[in-house]
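Changelog note: in this version the structure field was regenerated for every chain. One regenerated record is shown below for reference.
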Amino acid sequence: MSSRDHAAAAAVARVAVAGDGAILGVGLAICAATSWVKYLTSSSSLDRIRSAPSPRISDLRALLAASDGECEGEGKLVVVRGQVHLKPTADSNWMNSKNQSALISQGSGERAVIVQQTQTCLYNEWKGIFGWSIDLHALFAKSWREQRSSSLRSVPFILVEGGQWPNSGYVHINLDGSPHPLPLTTVYHQLRPIQPTPYTFFQAMFGNGYPVALLDEEKILAIGKEMTAIGKCRSQNGALELKSCPDLPYFLSDMTKDEIEARLAANSRILFWSGVILGAFSIGLLSFTIFRNWRRWKEWRRRSRSRDRHRMTDVESAVTDELENGSDEGDVPEGQLCVVCLMRRKRSAFVPCGHLVCCVQCAMYVQHSVSPKCPVCRQTAYSSIRIYDS
């Protein structure tokens, strides 16, 4: 790591432990709350998938007919498993599927219902001779999204129960509006280097990222692949249709229902214990922070009260000494009376203004007040001086 990286890490560490770890405790509490929210979502999804029926595709119509009240609107949540095949049309024979418009993989030549082709431009990570770590190409020429181009082609397809249709049932798969990732298989993966140009030398010298290779990938959903579908099933124009459920983590998967439940259960356990551990750490850290600051506040209050007692003791001792020594009370000329009490002779001058307007007792009280100011000019008085007659 460079010195800049070490400085950044040290700054982050100082911020994390600021306030006796209060910021770190709050961060851990947020992480714990996030883990609990994800745990509740994962547990809810697991319960729904466990309770969802997993009938054979040929039994879906009977299941929907037996639960008409539950199937109104979006449909009934089911889990089915079957083979991927092209959607049959009115003028085509499903048995002779070679005549249908299947997609052909350019990398493997396999027939598929979904083909995704991706091309990624890879850039160098060298910082240049000046040690600049900023990729000017990414800032001013292209964004990270523009470095990757992807195309997705698909045709309507169905899930067919084991065997051959029409001797077995099938269900249409509706991908419209599905936020779930597709379980595609990579069939083509090639890295093609890019020949450098004269412009590349200047890009490398100034630390500007330059392309070094193109990564071509092709992923497909092949015909005949065994898939598990989790979604809302309903009858649409006499045909069974399965649509994704956005609040569930899976729609199409090559895992079985038991494998999906096992994975969700493992994720739920991890999220649960993560929330417990992070929550315990955050509670302990925040409790320690509150306790430490409470102790500091009590210590500050104790010291403040001690200073106040010392100040009052000094004032009382000064007053006592003045009363024992002086004869400032009694017959005092009117022009020499203290402007505060109007009883004793003026004996103390304030610093820095120098006004001789108070007796010793009143000057001490003014000096040790919360906001000491001269009674005449209202300037802040830092101290007072006892004035003696010659």
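Spot check on this record: The chain has a mean pLDDT of 79. The chain has three domains: 1-51+256-299, 54-254, 334-386.
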